[in-house]
Amino acid sequence: MKTFLFTACFFLFSFPINLFTQKTLDKKQKIKISGLYLNGGFSVKKNISPGFGLNILLSSNWGGSISYSYIALKVKNLPSAYNQGTCSGGLFCGEPSEYIAEKSVRLIRMFPTTYKYLRFWIEAGFSLIEYSESQFKASNSNSRNYDFSHSKYQTFGISILAKIDLPITKLQGLEF
Questions:
Q1: Integer distance in angstroms from the first to the last C-alpha of the chain?
Q2: Which one, of 54, 53, 28, lies nearest residue 42 by Cα?
Q3: How many CB atoms neighbour CB 51 within 10 A?
Q4: How far apart are CA 145 and CA 16, in angstroms?
Q5: Rounded distance, CA 20 to CA 61, Å?
Q6: CA neighbours closer than 13 Å in the CB half-sphere of residue 49
Q7: Domain residues of the chain, as ranges?
Q8: What is the pLDDT along the chain (176 residues), one digit of tens a residue?
Q9: CB 148 within 8 A of CB 138
């Protein structure tokens, strides 16, 4: 799995450089890093779900991106008679949760416009997706009637994104 991610990272980050190296050597110009973007955000529905990433953009409008996002989910198979009980020390435990975590590596192509406060991006690459599912087993404990554990599953996927970028200042912007 680590070998796959390393290979994907190497391919995605070296491909745009190799693709444009021959063209730039003929013109005696070098490709420079024109942008290094750290992005982050979160969504709020029933839980807070964070996400963050790093984008590197070259002067040729090609680049690479790595990102991580985490989505907390409500448990699908929660028994109807589930009693949350109390944690040691008398603290409230709360309900068990499930989650989806996505780690991705993508190739970026930016399409600049004549308006300096508007950019279009297309990103495509590979993702590693991890899903955690809660498993319940009847318990003999006085404080709760079920014990739970998590089963984790992983799979690979393809990630394709289209973005609209509105740079507000040199250090801040909005993505849609």
A1: 31
A2: 53
A3: 15
A4: 56
A5: 10
A6: 18
A7: 2-170
A8: 444 444 344 444 434 444 444 344 445 567 788 888 888 887 777 677 899 999 999 988 999 999 999 988 888 888 877 776 666 555 545 667 788 999 999 999 999 899 888 989 999 999 999 999 888 888 776 666 777 788 899 999 998 989 998 888 877 788 78
A9: no
* Token reading at 118: 């508007």
In the numeric block, the tokens 């040199």 are attached to 170
Identify the bridge partners of residue 156 per DSSP, sorted by sequence position.
128
- Structural tokens at position 101: 């975590």
E runs forming strands in the chain = 33-44, 48-58, 62-74, 97-112, 119-138, 146-167, 173-175
Give domain 2-170's CATH number out of 2.40.160, 2.40.50, 3.30.70, 2.40.320.
2.40.160
